């Protein structure tokens, strides 16, 4: 009964507090301001990354949490100042009941704020046109972990500081320090440290927020919510409750009370370690800076020139995916070696390889697996685990397995990803690409048996399995939507709005641009694939005969064809590299400008070169600049002829001087006409 009256008492105190209520109102005022700023940004006109809107709560939580900590500190320290609890025989019990009642009242208020925030975000999503899906449920889960959770802990911060320091002046410094070190913006404030912390390092337990606060949503994977974040909050909560109990021990009045508190406190280390361990085991790598940096660094260290024996032919694949377990049966039509090499993502634990139902040995060198066969065989069976990594995230049962990733054994002689080093203004820089950006032309028969709901697969569904011929397979299990427009099957992320209205414009622009590209170069595929997968982050881009994966890099899908990036990407997706890297890149750079001019776009920067330009010797730079100067005054048809001739003849013997001569010849012919 007394706890009930304490709950009512603190509820009334909270509602009458100008500081507490003002901080809560400030939260929503700042949220509305952020929405206004977001919508006023032209880059957000298409709302292609509206899924990242909830990341605004990290800054807002950081701001208002200071006010909450101060209010709870003053409230509790003032009660302790007069030692009212010591006036009663069960004074220590009263003190604990006050703490629990205050925590319950604050949790109730934050629960109300959580639902209000969820309502605001949901209304914004519905307003911009985000279609109903389980995205809305995961939004609630995201806000519960990253808004409700950290704000609930503020009552414990204030109470613990009050118990330890009471009304001492140093308590203000303590509150400021706690606010900085425990806020969800910690990873951004100490970014140099957070960049080095991996998802499953024990150090990650020190961060209650995300490692990269700017990105809250990943295409098809969803919000960064998993059991790891929830277990981490539980570990923090238990740690703070245990610390509050330990801090209150000096207020006990009898030895019996002190012993009871100590016995209860002994349970907390076990519970904290248990929850922390579960947090590390279930934490995702999908949104963590350090994991991606480490993974890319591994590829930089891998020897690019590797020994691979490809004297075999693959006839078909039979792939079984149940949960995270993958079993792939590879049927061979030809085998002329006892040491065949396959490409398989090196971070996938490979449990076994069997030949004719008998285990065989194998070795791994990066993404290359060499099988040691005692005799020739017609089938090989690979058993391995699909795990969560930076390049292929696997979170909450959602996964995006793209055709340019080595998620099943492939007949390749290179690693899945290749890193390139170059210099810009004398500074060392790195770039990289997946080696299957241009998927080889040979086709295989694929049979996929997959559990769960599949959003997209480029292989047609036959009954309960997916079966058909393809160059490679893309499989998506995650949040997203699909529609059909002009015969094209379009797959897009769950946070993209109004795609049914915008798809016709997008398809027309893709078809038109691809047609123009074919006027200047031979493309890897003969026509625009009729299955298109869009994303705004996370995925790479590539084009196969039967499907296209296109990452807009946060540009609006409805307006991105007005930007240079769109035309450059379409060229790189469809036109295979030829000749030297610098010459191919400068061809892409000029061809991009020709495509923009073909579309009648007026703002074209003719002086800009490719990113490889700065790494060239001065003599080569002068030659390239001369080519740009000769190219710009040509009319559209002359530019088309130059680009077509350049690409057709581009090889290791094709020189900059020869390109310049060709342009001058075309200009002379055009001038005579």
From TrEMBL:
Transmembrane segments: 20-37, 57-76, 101-128, 148-165, 172-191, 233-249, 261-280
Keywords: Membrane, Transmembrane, Transmembrane helix
Name of the protein in question: ABC transporter permease
Organism, scientific name: Geobacillus zalihae
């Amino acid at each position: 009964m007394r706890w009930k009256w304490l709950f009512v008492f603190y509820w009334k105190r909270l509602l009458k507090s100008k500081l507490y209520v003002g901080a809560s109102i400030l939260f929503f005022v700042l949220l509305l301001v952020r929405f206004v700023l977001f919508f006023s940004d032209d880059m957000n006109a298409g709302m292609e990354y509206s899924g990242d809107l909830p990341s605004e709560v990290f800054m807002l939580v950081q701001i208002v949490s200071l006010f909450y900590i101060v209010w709870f500190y003053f409230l509790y320290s003032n009660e302790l100042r007069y030692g009212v609890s010591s006036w009663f025989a069960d004074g220590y019990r009263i003190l604990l009941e006050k703490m629990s009642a205050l925590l319950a009242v604050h949790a109730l208020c934050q629960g109300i704020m959580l639902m209000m925030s969820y309502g605001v975000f949901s209304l914004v999503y519905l307003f911009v046109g985000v279609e109903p899906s389980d995205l809305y449920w995961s939004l609630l889960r995201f806000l519960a972990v990253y808004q409700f959770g950290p704000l609930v802990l503020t009552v414990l911060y204030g109470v613990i500081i009050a118990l330890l320091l009471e009304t001492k002046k140093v308590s203000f410094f303590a509150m400021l320090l706690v606010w900085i070190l425990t806020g969800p913006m910690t990873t951004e404030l100490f970014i140099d440290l957070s960049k080095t912390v991996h998802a499953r390092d024990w150090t990650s337990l020190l961060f209650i927020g995300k490692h990269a606060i700017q990105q809250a949503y990943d295409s098809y994977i969803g919000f960064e919510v998993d059991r790891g974040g929830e277990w981490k909050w539980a570990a923090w909560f238990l740690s703070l409750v245990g610390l509050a109990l330990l801090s209150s021990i000096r207020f006990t009045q009898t030895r019996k009370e002190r012993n009871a508190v100590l016995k209860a406190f002994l349970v907390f280390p076990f519970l904290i370690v248990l929850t922390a361990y579960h947090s590390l085991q279930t934490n995702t790598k999908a949104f963590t800076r350090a994991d991606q940096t480490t993974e890319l660094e591994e590829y930089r260290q891998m020897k690019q020139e590797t020994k691979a024996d490809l004297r075999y032919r693959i006839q078909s694949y039979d792939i079984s995916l149940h949960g995270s377990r993958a079993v792939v049966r590879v049927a061979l039509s030809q085998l002329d070696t006892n040491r065949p090499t396959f490409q398989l993502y090196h971070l996938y634990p490979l449990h076994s390889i069997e030949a004719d139902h008998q285990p065989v040995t194998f070795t791994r060198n990066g993404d290359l697996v060499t099988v040691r066969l005692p005799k020739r065989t017609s089938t090989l069976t690979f058993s391995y685990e699909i795990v969560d990594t930076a390049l292929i995230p696997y979170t909450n049962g959602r996964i995006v397995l793209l055709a340019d990733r080595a998620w099943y054994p492939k007949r390749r002689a290179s690693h899945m990803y290749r890193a390139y080093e170059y210099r810009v203004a004398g500074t060392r820089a790195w770039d990289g690409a997946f080696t299957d950006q241009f998927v080889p032309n040979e086709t295989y028969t694929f049979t996929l048996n997959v559990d769960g709901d599949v959003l997209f697969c480029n292989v047609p569904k036959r009954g309960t399995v997916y079966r058909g011929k393809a160059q490679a397979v893309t499989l998506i299990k995650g949040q997203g939507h699909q529609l059909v427009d002009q015969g094209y099957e379009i797959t897009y992320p769950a946070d993209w709005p109004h795609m049914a209205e915008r798809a016709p414009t997008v398809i027309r622009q893709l078809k038109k641009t691809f047609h123009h590209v074919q006027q200047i170069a031979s493309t890897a595929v003969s026509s625009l694939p009729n299955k298109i997968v869009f994303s705004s982050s996370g995925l790479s881009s590539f084009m196969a005969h039967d499907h296209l994966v296109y990452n807009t890099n946060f540009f609006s899908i409805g307006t991105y064809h007005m930007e240079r990036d769109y035309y450059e990407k379409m060229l790189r997706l469809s036109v295979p590299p030829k000749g030297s890297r610098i010459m191919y890149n400068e061809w892409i750079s000029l061809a991009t400008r020709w495509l923009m001019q073909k579309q009648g776009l007026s703002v074209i920067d003719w002086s800009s070169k490719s990113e490889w330009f700065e790494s060239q010797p001065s003599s080569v730079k002068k030659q390239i600049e001369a080519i740009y100067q000769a190219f710009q005054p040509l009319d559209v048809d002359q530019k088309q002829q130059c680009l077509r001739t350049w690409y057709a003849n581009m090889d290791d013997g094709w020189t900059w001087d020869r390109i310049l001569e060709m342009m001058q010849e075309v200009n002379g012919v055009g001038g005579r006409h």
